[in-house]
Structure formats: structure tokens, C-alpha cells
Amino acid sequence: MNIKELNIIKQAILNEVEGYEFYKMAAAHSTEGETRDAFLELAEEEKKHIDWIKGFFEKVQSGKEDEFTLRLIGNVDSPRIFRWEALDRDSAEKAISVFGIALQMEKASKEYYEAAAMNTELKVARDLYKQLAYWENKHYDDFYNQYEKLKEQWWADQEYAPF
To answer: Which of 142, 82, 70, 66 is nearest to 110 (CA)?
Structure first.
């Protein structure tokens, strides 16, 4: 059993749990139904990550990491589950805060998985971490684009324009 590898995986699980809890909290504080549903869907995506990584942890812990295959988790391309147009624009300040934190979380997760991929000795772990880094990067890009739109809207609402 590789303790170093197990510690990398345990931290990855914790990172995903933090994302899951954050999106659940954002959903609980959303007043608009579609926005709440979108955050709940993002929480469920994080839950899938948790389940996949836990499954991988169990394989590594039992010395059966070769039995884990990326085919078990399917296509990890960004599902584009978040309908940005569904955001409640009247609560722009809350949305900007949520998106700002989400950007930080997605970036940190991507960087963690990239580092994990470089530091693992297991090919299957490297492949999993690269896929997860790719997915986190897609989430980051989606959040970044929306954050920029919300920021511009918030600036306009504050009458900081024309700049």
C-alpha cells in the first residue's frame, strides 16, 4: 500500500467534498428556483467526483489499482449543466460572491490535480487526475466568463460606468 498515493487521494476527496458543500450552501441561499437547481446540479457533479475518487482510493488501498479504469466513470467532459441565463440577475452581489469563490475553488482543484498527476507513480492515477484537472478547468472557464458578465453588470448598477 502506497501511503503517499493514498494521502494524495484523500486530499482530492476532501477538495471535492468542500466543493459539494459549497454548492449545496449556494443553492440553499438562492431565492430563484432555477439558480438553486443549477447549484444543486453542480453539487451532484462534485458528488460524482467524490464517488469516483473514493472508488479509486479503495482500489489503491487494496492493491488493486489496476482494476480501476476510466471507462467506469464515463466521459468526464464538462456536462454544461449550469444554465447561466437562469441566474437571478436581481441578486448580482450574491452571484458575484458565489462565482468569485467558485473560481478560486475550481482553480485550486485544477492545480491540485495537475500536481497530483505529476507526483503519482501510478499511470491510472495520472490519467484520472488529468481528466479531473481538465474538467475543473472547464468549470473554471464557465465560471470566469459568467463572472466577467456579472461584474460588468454590477459595475453598471453601481453607476461606475462609463469606464
So the answer is: 142
- Yes or no: say if 57 and 115 are a contact pair by the CB < 8 Å rule: no
Q: How many CB atoms lie within 10 A of CB 101?
A: 14
CATH 1.20.1260.10 fits 3-75+86-156, yes or no: yes
Q: What is the C-alpha to C-alpha distance for residues 129 and 13, in angstroms, rounded to an integer?
A: 12
Give pTM, 2 decimals.
0.79
Alpha helices in the chain (DSSP H): 3-28, 33-61, 92-119, 123-157
Q: What is the pLDDT of residues 77-120, one digit of tens each?
A: 454 444 555 555 556 677 778 888 889 999 999 999 999 999 99
Tell me the three state secondary structure of residue 118.
helix
Buried b (16+ CB within 10 A) or exposed e, 102-136: bbebbbebbebbbebbeebebebbeebbbbbbebb
Stated length of the chain: 163
